Amino acid sequence: MNRRSVVSEADLSRRKYVLAAGAAGLSVLSGCLIGELESSTENGTASPEQPSAAGHSSPELARWVDELSRPPTVDPVGTRDGQPYYEIEMRETEQKLHRDLPATTVWGYNGQYPGPTIEAQQGEPIYVRWSNALPDTHLLPVDTTIHADDVPYDSTGVRTVTHLHGGNTEADSDGHSQAWFTRGFQQTGPTFEKKDYYYVNDQPPATLWYHDHSLGITRVNVYAGLAGLYLLRGDHEQSLGLPAGEYEIPLVLQDRSVNEDGSLYYPSGPTSQGETANELPEPSIVPQFYGDVSVVNGTAWPRLSVEPRKYRFRILNGANSRYYNLELRRYDESTGETVGEGPVFTQIGTDGGLLSQPVEIETRLELGSSKRADVVVDFADYAGETLLLHNNAPAMYRGVTEKSDPTGSLTDIMLVDVDGSVGGTDTSRIPNSLTEVPKLSLDGVDNRRYLPLVQSADDDGRPMFLLGTEENPSGWRLTDPVTESPTLGETELWTVANLTGMSHPIHLHLVHFQVLGRESTEYDPATDSVDPDTLRDPDRAERGWNDVVSVDPGEVVHLLAHFGEYDGLFNDQTGTYMWHCHMLEHEEHDMMRPIEVVPGTDTAQRNKDSKQPTTDG
Ligand SMILES: [Cu+2]
After folding, report:
1. What is the structure's pLDDT at 271?
2. Distance 130 CA to ligand 1 centre (A)
3. How close is the Cα of 356 to the center of ligand 1, in Å?
4. How close is the Cα of 590 to the center of ligand 1, in Å?
């Protein structure tokens, strides 16, 4: 069942109100919206020929002329304390994104875009030295007013810091946004602690990824190419018989805009998007970014050849702002038309690891920015056919504004050619039972928080989104005092209420949470209790460990998060982490807040008792 099909009338009336409020500020981006406010929020499939949000159109590129490439895996360079030690250097490089485009200057980990895949094993810690060999100045427009009090924009060198997204990681290795460093560690940010990051890998096997998280320039650092996958594997998971080796393929989905000379295009401000704006800084941050070129694993509109058998795909939404809502469709390449349904996605895992049971995705696979899906697709019935990986998520996802979306959908993502015959016998399988996912329950909750997502404006009158609390529903800035200080060993209920005009993918560092359920923003934390029986259930594919949750406009999502080891899974950590919207333009301005995990009274004993787990979840 698609949870979105069960929105009450009350939801809808409330939704109109909040959307009207939220849309006002968005007009800076997309011009006149008011006539569209009453239109339905159903997804439409817009023409892919529409220009990008920035009023910039990338050159016409022939589709499906380049093969999909697979990011290489990276080997350790040695050991440290008996554990694998990696050195991964960020540097500028030139890379062909498309046959007909000149090479594009990108930034890549080890000079590769996307970065090389780190393959780690559950229970085996690794060290990584992320080093910075980037040029003195940025490749893309940088708005020096964003966190201007905390960021030395006038100093030489590009600031970077790498966050392992989904890692249950010690705070000093988490990639705090102010733990940045410049080339050769010449200059370091106020929370910088160490050069060699330590990943304990004491969590269920999962599809993690790493990316830049540097304060004020995360959006442009990631856009320049600083992102890669981190696959945490486990003995149990590897014994399941899932498709493996050449039949396991990562798909890093991104949208980009390019210029005729092949260079990356990123808008220097909303004024360059064709709107009238007040006097804005130059460059100025844009509220959202939507590119008009689909890039998968660093190649524009690629095609992939598969055998008619099962494949495992590790799909990451690595886009700055864009949502993807995916399905495979039969495709007639001579007409460019889709001609029927293709194979379904069988989802076996989400952000934090395997689901307990496989889930057939009956509608579409929704991925907000930074969300991962571990899926199996069986191409056996499609021998000799061509399939299109099709997206119908508009920009400004699930807001009324999506109908006036100036970018349209980026509908065509990737082409899949299914060979006429299978190379060998397909012995892979999808077991009915994948793992045990211990349940977090409302009964075990020690502390509750109400966290509204709200729209605001900055001193220049630019729209911005903030995270609030029950005490301050109008929202906090990033550098306001810490308001979320969970105690190690405790379980919390986080009630996230979206009072803005579009969906936001909300990400917590450190912990993986479970989605208890959803209701409308009629919910009042002062008077209403949370009754699981009256909530809309989480999507079936959400019933595992998540670190990103999509919160639609007018919607409240109740999350259960346990801080520390839980039922033999995860590990105890204290210190400062972040939580934020993962639309990078939102995170930067200013939809990000600290989490300070504080020790509990029995923490010392728990640390003494904790052991490396021998099972994977
Ligand atoms: Cu957001």
Report:
1. 54
2. 28
3. 29
4. 10
pLDDT of residue 25: 35
Burial 279-318 (b: 16+ CB within 10 A, else e): ebeebbbbbbbbbbbbbbbbbbbbbbebbbbbbbbbbbbb
Distance of CA 479 to the CA centre of its chain: 23
Cα 269 to Cα 521: distance, rounded to the nearest angstrom = 32
Single-letter amino acid code for the residue at 617: G
β-strand pairing of 302-306 with 412-418: parallel
Q: Which has the closest alpha carbon to 166: 93, 89, 227, 95?
A: 227
Give the model's pLDDT for residue 38: 25
Low-confidence spans in the chain with pLDDT less than 70: 1-54, 271-278, 400-408, 602-617
**Which two structure tokens, joined as six digits, stand for 13?**
């009336």
Residue 219 Cα to ligand 1 midpoint, Å, equals 13
Q: Which two tokens stand for residue 583?
A: 């639309």
Nearest-angstrom CA–CA distance, 565 and 171: 15
User: Which tens digit of pLDDT belongs to each residue from 441-493?
Assistant: 999 999 999 999 999 999 888 999 999 999 999 999 999 999 999 999 999 99
Please give the distance, rounded to the nearest whole angstrom, from the Cα atom of residue 248 to the centre of ligand 1: 31
- C-alpha of residue 508 to centroid of ligand 1, in Å: 13
Q: Are 164 and 176 in contact (CB under 8 A)?
A: no
Three-state secondary-structure class, residue 40: coil
CA distances from 249 to 21, 73, 90, 379, 535 (A): 42, 12, 24, 14, 36
Residue 272's Cβ-count burial label (10 Å; 0-12, 13-18, 19+) is middle
CA of 581 to the centre of ligand 1 (A): 5
> Ligand 1 mean position to 340 CA, how many Å?
34
CATH superfamily of 3-62+246-418: Cupredoxins -  blue copper proteins (2.60.40.420)
What is residue 197's DSSP assignment?
E
Predicted pLDDT at 278: 64
Query: Among 564, 568, 567, 566, which residue's Cα sits nearest to residue 604?
Result: 564
**344 contacts 367 by C-beta, under 8 angstroms:** no
pLDDT tens digits, one per residue of 63-109: 999 999 999 999 999 999 999 999 999 999 999 999 999 999 999 99
d(CA 211, CA 220): 11
Spatial separation of the C-alpha atoms in residues 56 and 315, rounded to whole Å: 28
**SS3 per residue for 301-342:** CEEEEECCCEEEEEEEECCCCCCEEEEEEEEECCCCEEEEEC
Task: Record the tokens describing residue 339, joined without a space.
Answer: 């001609």
State whether residue 363 is helix, strand or coil: coil
State how far the alpha carbon of 453 is from the alpha carbons of 313, 456, 501, in Å. Answer: 32, 10, 10
- How far is the C-alpha of 544 from the C-alpha of 547, rounded, in Å? 10
Measured in Å, residue 453 CA sits from the centre of ligand 1 at 8
Ligand 1 centre to CA of 302 (Å) is 29
Report how far residue 195's alpha carbon sits from residue 203's, in angstroms, rounded to the nearest whole number: 23
CA of 462 to the centre of ligand 1 (A): 15
Task: State residue 160's pLDDT score.
Answer: 98
Predicted pLDDT at 8 = 34
**Dihedral-angle region of residue 610 (phi above 0 means left; psi in -120 to 50 means alpha; beta otherwise):** beta
